[in-house]
Design goal:
The chain has 328 residues and is of the alpha/beta class. It contains 13 helices and twelve strands. It is 41% helix and 17% strand. GO terms for molecular function: LPPG:FO 2-phospho-L-lactate transferase activity.
């Protein structure tokens, strides 16, 4: 009796970053037939995350919380509850409930990564969420002026151009699960997110970048739609890629996914008031460096500009499928 044909293996996709952009993209990706692992920065030191990091000596939970909620099969009210930030109360004001739950899980399990895993199970998360390292990382920036700024939250406020960022300790060990996920990946996605404070802190963990370089997966950079004041003022797409190359020592990506849709002038004006501009797609410069470009209208505007999660995940899924077919 012949066996029924086995189902094709689901593509294994690893996403690296932090911040709102990553969470938006993951909401689209979780609807695709893929296995997702999100590797999330642990360099945050502001707000509720910074307080918990300092007082409880734990990695900052904020970016992890946002990614867990993005990937969770949770009722909208539960997601809203986890994002609830206490407006008042001695010791409570400013904290989000999700951050406090992660702190509790960390304490109960005795380990941050285990706490994240347990909360993932409670929330029925589609995929895995892993901190880039088991311990918090201190992010520092050398400005073009020569000044050194310490702290992820302080870097964009320093008021100058960033020459480079670096982490302390420089030889921090990555979470072994994160390394294994990268080794097994069919696709590795970096971004979107704050270039210097959400993306590069992950890539500066030595073994993570080395593992990406050695991987046979398709490697994709998802570029931000708008520049970020204090970080990427007046940056083009190629400027983002150059910054990554300068920090890791090589051209890391095969593909770049960028927005080429028009953004209404009134929306641009709103962002310009805060010092943000559209990231210019300098296509000739990008392709000259050997990157393949996928460009489409990838933005939605409600209260803020955000990536169109459905369209973005469609392009990513098509790219990963074709890459796997090519590899056989």
């Amino acid at each position: 009796m012949s066996r029924p044909p086995s189902k094709p293996r689901r593509p294994r996709v690893v996403v690296i970053g932090g911040g709102t952009g990553l969470s938006v993209m993951l909401r689209g990706l979780k609807e695709r037939p893929i296995d997702i692992t999100a590797i999330v920065t642990v360099a945050d030191d502001g707000g509720s995350s910074g307080i918990l990091r300092s007082e409880l000596q734990m990695p900052p939970p904020g970016d992890i919380r946002n990614v867990l909620i993005a990937l969770a099969d949770a009722e909208p009210l539960l997601a809203q509850t986890l994002q609830y930030r206490f407006p008042a109360g001695t010791g409570l004001a400013g904290h989000s409930l999700g951050n406090l739950m992660l702190a509790a899980m960390c304490d109960i399990s005795g380990d941050f990564a285990t706490g994240v895993r347990e909360l993932s199970r409670v929330l029925a998360v589609r995929g895995r969420v892993l901190p880039a390292a088991s311990h918090a990382i201190v992010l520092k920036a050398e400005m073009e002026s020569g000044d050194i700024v310490e702290g992820e939250s302080k870097i964009p406020l320093a008021g100058g151009a960033i020459k480079r960022v670096f982490i302390d300790p420089p030889d921090v060990s990555p979470l072994q699960e994160a390394v294994e996920a990268l080794q097994e990946a069919d696709a590795i996605l970096v971004g979107p997110g704050s270039l210097y404070t959400s993306i590069l802190p992950n890539l500066l963990v030595p073994q993570i970048t080395q593992t990406i370089m050695e991987s046979q997966a398709v490697k994709v950079f998802i570029c931000n739609v708008m520049t970020q004041p204090g970080e990427t003022d007046n940056y083009s797409v190629s400027d983002h890629l150059r910054a990554v190359r300068d920090h890791v020592g090589c051209d890391l990506f095969d593909y770049v996914i960028v927005n080429n849709g028009e953004i209404p002038p009134q929306v641009q004006d709103r962002y310009a008031e805060k010092g943000a501009r559209v990231v210019h797609l300098d296509l000739d410069e990008v392709t000259k460096k050997g990157y393949k470009v996928i460009a489409d209208k990838l933005v939605l505007f409600r209260t803020y500009l955000r990536h169109d999660a459905d369209k973005l995940s469609h392009h990513i899924y098509q790219l990963v499928e074709s890459w796997m077919l090519k590899k056989g």
